[in-house]
Design brief:
It is a single chain. This protein is of the alpha/beta class and 347 residues long. The chain folds into two domains: 180 residues, Rossmann fold; 136 residues, P-loop containing nucleotide triphosphate hydrolases (Rossmann fold, 3-Layer(aba) Sandwich), CATH 3.40.50.300. The chain is built from 14 helices and ten strands. The strands form two sheets. A five-stranded parallel β-sheet has the order 2-3-4-1-5, with helices on both faces. Strands 7-8-9-6-10 form a five-stranded parallel β-sheet. Helix 13 links the parallel strand 8 and strand 9. Helix 13 runs parallel beside helix 14. The chain is globular. It starts with 19 loop residues before the first helix and ends in a 17-residue tail after the last strand.
Length: 347
């Protein structure tokens, strides 16, 4: 439940608010920190222990918006501003969904150990996970633990709303709106508009041309490298436990993946987990890949509905992160060799 290394030094001062909504999100995050720093009186503390808290501390802040607008940076800045004076938990929603204990028990354990919870990237592609999420949020609210969450979707877009008009009606329209301040964070994807250090490359175009570029980069590369087809990568995600797979990949200097093509939600989710892990891991290898189509077209939300559309919306974050990892260009616009990969030298 620790902060990912990529965001270990995140601060409010580093956050560049380029839109009015980003400026509002920054103000809301700072206010959240100020409110969480207020120490409750002994009577409020007693009420909290008895489950009757009416503390003035915030129940929650929900930052929602497209990928690349700095929501996770603000979440990490809150964590860094509060820690260690205020004990904070920082977790990705997938950590919550992978728990084997009941959601309420998990939430009680969080509340026993932490005064604030930071929940990153609330992902909505499974009604069962929505039920787990709601139970955790309700339990944290009952325990008086403020929660700051980020997501690409509003509560009204949760899948359960597509299947039932009443399933979470009270929670979404009464409790959630009453207990959580919802702030929209809009703006361009900074990973595409700002200068970022990209260690990898992506070649887009016909397979014969892109594979020639990828093969040359592979032959010129120094250090530990691995060549995989996309089928190899997909098979590895099936046969190897995710933590073990990522530990294995971090022993490499460069990973070459040929002919990425997303055929279904399973392909999308498997690639999503790998790319997100590489993005967050400071020891990740440089990624080099080929594909016939650009990443934005791999799993377009406009071409899907229901669960597939929810996965495609989530996949948009992965595409954004892929642009942070790789310089992605059509094959005809790329030089024959990879200039920043030094050729092997004698000795």
């Amino acid at each position: 439940m620790a902060l990912p290394d990529r965001f270990r030094t995140a601060t409010f001062e580093e956050y560049e608010a380029g839109t009015s909504s980003q400026a509002e999100a920054l103000r809301a995050a700072r206010e959240f920190v100020r409110a969480c720093r207020q120490s409750p009186s002994w009577t409020e503390h007693l009420k909290q222990l008895l489950g009757r808290t009416e503390t003035s501390r915030p129940n929650g802040l929900y930052l929602v918006g497209p990928a690349g607008t700095g929501k996770t940076h603000l979440l990490a800045a809150v964590y860094n501003a509060l820690t260690p004076a205020v004990s904070c938990a920082f977790l990705h929603s997938s950590t919550l969904f992978r728990q084997t204990v009941p959601p309420t028990a998990f939430a009680h354990r969080l509340a026993d150990e932490h005064a604030v919870c930071c929940l990153d990237e609330v992902e909505i592609d499974d009604p069962a996970n929505e039920m787990r999420l709601v139970q955790v949020l309700q339990t944290l609210a009952e325990r008086g633990v403020p929660l700051l969450a980020t997501s690409n979707v509003t509560p009204e877009q949760y899948l359960s709303r597509q299947f039932s008009e009443t399933r979470f009606e009270r929670f979404l329209h009464r409790e959630f709106r009453a207990d959580y301040r919802i702030v929209f964070v809009e703006g361009p994807d900074y990973r595409r508009t700002q200068e970022v250090e990209q260690s990898g490359h992506g070649w887009i175009g016909p397979s014969d041309q892109t594979q020639r570029a990828l093969r040359r980069a592979y032959e010129e590369a120094t250090g530990a490298s691995r060549w995989w087809s996309f089928s190899d990568l997909r098979r590895a995600t099936t046969e190897i436990a995710h933590p073990t797979l990522i530990d294995d990949l971090t022993t490499l200097d460069r990973l070459f993946v040929a002919d990425i093509s997303i055929a279904n939600t399973d392909d999308a989710l498997r690639l999503l987990r790998v790319i997100d892990a590489l993005y967050l891991n400071p020891d990740a290898p440089a990624l080099h890949f080929t594909a016939e189509r650009p990443p934005d077209a791999w799993f377009d939300p406009d071409a899907h509905a229901g669960v597939a559309q929810a996965v495609a919306e989530k996949f948009g974050r992965t595409v954004s992160r892929l642009h942070a990892l790789c310089d992605i260009r059509p094959v005809e616009s790329v030089e024959p060799s990879v200039s920043n990969i030094p050729p092997e030298t004698d000795g």
